[in-house]
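Lab notes, practical 5.
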Amino acid sequence: MKTATAEPHTRSESLFSDVCVLVKARLSFLVLTTTFVGFLLGTRGSAVDWFVLAATLAGTALSACGASALNQWWEREHDARMKRTQDRPLPTGRMHPADALMFGLFFSVAGVAILALFVNYLTAALAGSTVLIYVLVYTPMKRVSELNTLVGAIPGALPPLLGWTASTGEAGLGGWVLFAILWFWQMPHFLAIAWMYREEYAGAGFRILTGRDPDGVATARQALLYSMCLLVATLIPGVIGLNSVVYFIGAFVFGIAFLALAGNFAVQRDRAAARLLFFGSIIYLPLLLGLLVATRS
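Output from the prediction step:
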């Protein structure tokens, strides 16, 4: 009897785990976090409309999960060739491709519909654009052009702008500044990943910026350049009055620390330095987002 009751329980846990992997739960959580920050910054001291905020987060979560599911459905054969992705539910056969496609389409459509019905059409259009660019442009582009990272950073940077438009009803300067911050942050973050797993990406047929850079000079130089641009972009909220002088000082300190990690990668150009930059980027972003919220005007 114990075995009989434990087996369905284990199966349900396994299904839940596989769905979390399919929708890239950690990435989707990051999307929600940046959307939330964009929404709060857009209020500019006004009272928060909690219903609109809830609808924004629900719609964003569904569309982000849908885009991730469709991405994995499209890339299932290529994921099977990479050690870091071969244990995903589709390459292993734990989930049928038709089920993943259904999940992806349903979540994407439902998310955009919620935003259109309960938030505003501009936010819904941005969410729809995020899904379309991520799935129909970035995903196939990964196998034909090394510029795919630049394009893939666009849907990754749209969530804070989406939160801003949900709060304000328009894509103002503040929203575009948040977009720029996220776009520039993604570049050193993903360049570090691409350098660490460049052989696996190449073996799976993906074209990446590090593919024709065996000594890492170009990769490290780009990571350093984008980190410099990130530092400048993060200071703008303090300049335009979106945040206080405390934010400006804090963002500068965080930016210099992150720039140092990129500089270390530029000098060392090895896996350890790339790994340090990668983990540094993971620590840096929530610190910056927290500072943005805590010091908003």
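Observations recorded by the TA: The chain is about 80% helix and 0% strand. Confidence is low (pLDDT under 50) at residues 1-9.
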